Amino acid sequence: MENKCIKRLIRSKSGLRIVTTDDTNKSPFLLGEPHWVPDKDSVCCTDCKKKFDFLTRRHHCRRCGRIYCKNCCDFRLELPRMCFVDPVRHCESCADISRKENEFFDKELKMLTGGALFQLIKLPESNEKRSEFICRLSQDHRYLNFDGSVEEEFEPVQLASIMELNLLRSPDVPPGMFVTYMNNEGTVKEMTLLAPPDCNKNHTISWLSAMQNGFKMATDSRNIS
Description:
Blueprint: E1 7-12, E2 15-20, E3 59-60, E4 67-68, E5 75-77, E6 88-90, H1 92-114, E7 116-122, E8 132-137, E9 143-148, E10 157-158, E11 162-168, E12 176-182, E13 188-194, H2 201-224
Antiparallel strand pairs: 1-2, 3-4, 5-6, 7-8, 7-13, 8-9, 9-10, 11-12, 12-13
């Protein structure tokens, strides 16, 4: 389930950004631009406390919006969570966060949209044969889709509707995850996804780890917005 996502190029005070025209279709991993601390409210660098003057100029971190001197805000990094086209200025603490997140955007996101093989267990579990399918993140990053030879069609799960996601790490249980979410009717549902016996376990474990990182990032975006 994906809606056509129309994007446009805009110029903000922080730089060029490519954003969706409709916020309802934006990726759940994205963050809005922060409020900038006004120049008049900052007489010294947030980090080193050096006073601003004609030679020591003010610079805003594009991620947190706080004001620093050039030396404390001279890290230029990609910031895909805010849709910037070019690398933008970061303070040191924000640079550390963006470096870790960029690993997700550069590597793990592609893995999630590629998918992994699972068996679906609906709760309460029945004695029916477990069907195998590919669980993958939609290209707009908003849904978990289930593709494969399932006898009954399983509705995509909106990432924003997931309330809890826990990885199954017990040595007695195949790699998998337990998900609690709310369906379109507003009913809380639970499901367990387990790796089939003959799947590539290393790929499945990597996919699950990426999914957990994505869920944390989406939850973080919801809490900030």
